């Protein structure tokens, strides 16, 4: 499974993570608390989130590495919709492992 991670520096990381989890809970079996979340997009892809006072860390795991860029865009597009009052800048993803 391919994995990539991105760190978003924001004082609102917990709020954004909760909003993302609640949003996707309508379609997926999302599990989250105030510091971490897991969104299983399907049997072959998921997004793990960890929030703290300084920001939000996203880790995207996909079985088909050809889908990585598309899934990164989906996650960031949704995040930016919730963070419309704040400029999150360019989000840089880095491979894990």
Helical percentage: 25-40%
Structural class by secondary-structure content: alpha+beta
Strand order of the largest sheet: 2-3-4-5-1-6
Based on Cα principal axes, name the global outline.
Answer: globular
CATH architecture grouping? 2-Layer Sandwich
| C-alpha termini separation | 11 Å
* Mean pLDDT metric: 95
CA-based gyration radius: 12 Å
CATH superfamily: Alpha-D-phosphohexomutase, C-terminal domain
Q: What portion of the residues fall into strands of 2 or more residues?
A: 35-45%
Largest sheet: 6 strands, antiparallel
**CATH fold-level name:** TATA-Binding Protein
The overall number of domains is: 1
CATH class: Alpha Beta
Task: Tell how many strands the DSSP assignment holds.
Answer: 6
Put simply, the count of helices is 2
- Spans where pLDDT lies below 50 across 5 or more residues: none
Succession of helices and strands: EHEEEEHE
Protein name: DUF2218 domain-containing protein
Pfam family, one: DUF2218
InterPro entries: UCP028291 (IPR014543)
């Amino acid at each position: 499974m391919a994995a990539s991670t991105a760190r978003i520096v924001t004082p609102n990381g917990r709020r954004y993570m909760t909003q993302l989890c609640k949003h996707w809970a309508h379609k997926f079996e999302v599990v989250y608390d105030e510091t971490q979340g897991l969104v299983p997009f399907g049997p072959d892809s998921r997004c793990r989130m960890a929030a703290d006072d300084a920001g939000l860390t996203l880790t995207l795991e996909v079985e088909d590495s050809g889908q990585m860029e598309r899934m990164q865009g989906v996650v960031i597009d949704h995040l930016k919709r919730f963070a419309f009052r704040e400029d999150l800048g360019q989000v840089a993803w880095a491979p894990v492992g």
